[in-house]
Amino acid sequence: MKGMSNTTGRLAARNSFVRPWRIVEMEMWERNEIEEQRPARIQFHRDGTGELHFLVVQGGIDCRFQMRDGRAFVEFSWSGFSEMDETCGRGRAELESDSRLKGRVFFHLGDDSAFAAVRQRTAHHRQERGRRLHK
Fold first, then answer.
1. What is the number of domains present in the chain?
2. In a domain, 1, yes or no
3. Which of 5, 17, 78, 131 could bridge across to 44 with cysteines, CB 3.0–4.6 Å?
């Protein structure tokens, strides 16, 4: 966004990502595989942290939000476990629409995969929507 300060751009980008996202597809694996242990998801928090879960991988995220060419973008590093083995990597994601995220996750010295995620409704969002519908 032309004329937007760097801080304002980061805040706008951050606010676009801060919510849970359900990973619905990955380039390298089938949906039943990515949800082997639990629903596959990625979540970003306001403080630049987050979580990532897919396959037998779970990890913590350290992320940076920014605007690029007027679009919200996030880059992140992650570390955690794949089964009982420590693992880590990096990733990036971009908002494709208000409710769809596309990105790529990389394993350090290993595989990488594109992914797509959709906004996951939380109990709070469902309650708010219900209140608006009943007014």
1. 1
2. no
3. 17
Distances (CA, A) of 72 to 31, 58, 100: 26, 24, 12
**Could you tell me the residue range of the domain that residue 85 belongs to?**
6-133
Question: Is residue 87 a part of any domain in this protein?
Answer: yes
- pLDDT tens-digit readout, 24-71: 999 999 988 999 888 999 999 999 999 999 999 999 999 999 888 888
98, part of any domain: yes
Amino acid at residue number 85:
D
CA distance 73 to 71: 6
CA separation for the pair 85, 108 (Å, rounded): 13
- Torsions phi, psi for 72 (to 5 deg): -70, 135
